[in-house]
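User: Please predict the structure of the protein below. I'd like the answer in structure-token form so I can feed it into my own downstream comparison script.

Assistant: Understood. Taking the following sequence of 415 residues as input:
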Amino acid sequence: MATLVLDNGAYWAKIGYSQDKVSVIPNCQFRSKTSRLKTFTANQLDEIKDPSGLFYILPFQKGYLVNWDVQRKVWDHLFGKEMFKVEFPDTSIIITEPYFNFSSIQESMNEILFEEYQFQSALRINAGSLGAHRYFTTKPSELCCLVVDSGFSFTHIVPYCRSKKLKEGIRRINVGGKLLTNHLKEIISYRQLHVMDETYVINQVKEDVCYVSQQFYKDMEIAQMKGEENTVMRDYVLPDFSAIKKGFCKPREEMVFSGKYKTGEQTLQLANERFAVPEMLFHPSDIGIQEMGIPETIADAVQSLPEEMHPHFYQNIVLTGGNSLFPGFRERLEAELRSLVPAHLPVNVFLPENPVCYSWEGGKLLAHSPDYDEMVVMREDYEENGHIISGSPRQPAPAAAGWSHYQRNRRSILH
């Protein structure tokens, strides 16, 4: 039986059969300024010739799936003939859901997967659990890991022991990629050019030029300098979607430090915005969000767990989600954690080659594991027992036994 793995993120859907490669596709619909009557779904974004003023219709709001009409249309598109040609009665699906998901959302998802699409079996699971499974598969000797999942809506810090998530240590920071893009739009609109309607373009600007500063105050001093002494400043050429299809950062040697460009290119001049926007992940209080940054939250999460486990978590921190792609993110996080953690404990932050698809890869591995058949909910079981059977996926043996097994073998683990 084929297994379809769908990491159903709030912005990107990572989807593919367990024996194939992953496809990363927008999990939303779009309307463009030029053709307002037509709605584009998922990867039909490529068909829009002028994405300026692009309007997003998202199935997720504040991290939870609330717009089922949009989500159905995206799934219809992904499962349909143009994309994956899913044969539902012969297919099992692994699909991700948020932490502490509402039971009403879970029940709606069960109904759609089993009653509308008629999947043979389904497994609902957190993206972090798949990321942890991927990590434990590559490092079987490790007992614990701490998944830092910084995505579109939130940043979650989740501790895992032998594939079992420890709920008392889960933390959430209300800062994600959406907030960073919106903040960058506000700064640029206030300082240079009105771009509040240009989510698509400014999101690209954020990905192209933003980075995490290793020395925030020093970089801030450099950003205030004039002319060529300002090594932080970059000129970003905005797309016009005719001659320039995609925006780009001008090479340093081509930058003009006095006067304007003569070519008619529309440019943004970015200085401290480049590092001040990602800084919100480390200091949300900068924009009035009264929460701890990622390093302090990690320390707080680990502190809530038994002391004997602390070394195992600090040396196995795994970064997933799009925000971990900012240059300097891993180095800054490791440096700040080092200053917060007792000197005798090792600190190691692991950044996968592709943090966006890391959880999907975990789902791919899980689909081929011998425990998979015990974890899924079959359609026959659902039809017979309803939501009771599918309230939560059955855990594999090592996950279910993880915590008690850890306590029973504490001495052997520590030595």
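That's the full token string. The chain has a mean pLDDT of 88.
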